[in-house]
Amino acid sequence: MEELQHWTWVMGRAQQMIMEQGLDLKVTTPPMPPMPPMPQMPSMPTSLPVDPAAMIRAGADFWADSMNLWQRFLDPAKAAPFEETPEQARDKRFKAPQWREQPLFDFIRQSYLTIADHMLKGVEAIDGMPPKQKEQLRFKTQGFIDAMSPSNFAMTNPLVLEKTIATKGENLLKGLQHMLSDLGKGQMTQGAEGAFELGRNLAMTPGKVVKRTPLYELIQYSPATESVFKTPLIIFPPWINRFYILDLTPEKSFIRWAVEQGLTVFVVSWKSADATMADVVWDDYVEQGQIDAIDTVRELLDVEAVHTIGYCVAGTTLAATLAVLAARGEAAKVKSATFFTAQVDFSEAGDLNVFVDDDQLAMIQSLTTDGFLDGRYMAATFNLLRGRDLIWNYVTSNYLLGEDYMPFDLLHWNSDVTNLPAKWHASYLTDLYRDNRLVQAGALSIGGTPVDLTKVATPSYVQAGREDHIAPPKSVWKITEQFTGPLRFVLAGSGHIAGVVNPPSAGKYQYWTNEAGAASLDDFVAGASETKGSWWPDWSDWLEALDDVRVKAIGTRKPKENQELGDAPGSYVATR
Q: CA 489 → CA 261, 440, 496, 533, distances in Å?
């Protein structure tokens, strides 16, 4: 009777929490922001070209695997063992011993992996489907498979059942509280809230805001060496995220590390879009953004040229900026350009391509409010690209198991969304991702100047991440086929973020270089030399080889105090 009363209380408490959440949503003033719709996959054709012989073979293979599965469950001593692929063996969802030691859950695991394997093989067996449509079907199938994992459901996850019994349902109530909180704010929580704060344990590198425009703030960082390189560095982070990805905790900060190498570092902190930016387009990010920042630094320090870094979409934009400057006879303003995981040719642009078609573009347009796109939509899109890690992992650990969120600076940054100007976003997806116009000489113009990437002769350092799913290395490599100046390509271990944010002190990953040059990425990899650790020192050596002149870190090399503009990290980075 006591047990029955307790579980009755648990169900009653859960119902009360749901009712209270619904009531809070109604009475809160101003109203809680609505959760943006999840990005939708484009509709698939109702009839697919199928090879009858292949279908018969697939059916026979599935039947054979199913019979083996049941034999292992009913008579394991006489059955052939389940053969896991290396990827299945590394699957973190099933690393707990209960998934293998308890026969029922071992059967559930094997059933799931078997069905998943055959579903993906079925996609690959389809002939006659356009490549992009097939990639969309593959992505959608994988998303469905990840969602249906037995680890995502309380009754088929042995760890959840064990904890539910041990805590008498407290884990489910705590998980429900987490879920209701996420529904209220319209975004999935990925890290402990309140664990990080700008200026306290993130974005701590000392500096000052030296300029503020309606589009960006320019931050100059204080020197950490007695002398600095004469040519300063401007970093252009992507405006789809916050700039402090390059200034996380001090031990991970690329900005701090660059300052310690003797560089005078400037960073552009972009404004999160609001109604005042309804008419902002790509031209503005080039003219009033990158070119304006370049001219500002040149004038402030009285130098002829600057080094530049463009990360992701800002790297794509930097390529266009260089082309514009070259066409105007002003290429000398930029001494070098470094590209972090940036694409210019979008013909093989990776997983994001599955979201770019006419149906998706129309849906994005419908989500626009007051001329800007809610940043939570982009966050949901990027989470879907790695749904197993960035969605279902938290469903299991924080909703079902009721675990506390872990403090992790990278996940805090990942959840710190920014809004995007709707006009810019629409044109970026259509002109670049859909129509691939940036690599068509003269197809795009900025400020009336035709863009031709083949006119760019600026010395360039191009970094790609080997496991990058947002800007795949094969796509990043294509920048080498456009530029005509000296270029160094470096392939870093890991992906879009960890492949960039990899300080030497961490001793993690590796990178590959090929001093002999290569005509393709495959040739580059075939002849590449591997170096353990971070590629940052390689970049620093490359930069110093271009220009090693130093000056004393005095005068304008130290940012001036300005009460109105304030200290780094500035105000735009905190604007929601």
A: 21, 22, 16, 17
Q: How far apart are CA 559 and CA 510, in angstroms?
A: 35
Query: Known catalytic residue: 312?
Result: yes
Q: Is residue 293 a contact partner of residue 310, using CB atoms and an 8 Å limit?
A: no
On whether the CB atoms of residues 485 and 460 are closer than 8 A, the answer is: yes
pLDDT in tens, 336-395: 999 999 999 999 998 888 888 888 888 888 888 889 999 888 888 888 888 999 999 999
The active-site residue out of 305, 312, 323, 354 is: 312
Q: What is the DSSP string of 454-514?
A: GG--S-EEEEEETT-SSS-HHHHHGGGGT--S-EEEEEESS-TTTTTS--GGG---EEEE-
CA distances 261 to 109, 268, 461, Å, are: 51, 20, 17
- Biggest distance spanned by C-alpha atoms of the chain: 86
Question: How far is 566 from 574, CA to CA, in rounded Å?
Answer: 13
Strand 207-212, strand 449-450: pairing:
unpaired
What pairs with residue 194 in β-bridges?
Answer: none
Indicate the Cα dihedral angle 492, 469, 388, 372, nearest 10°: 120
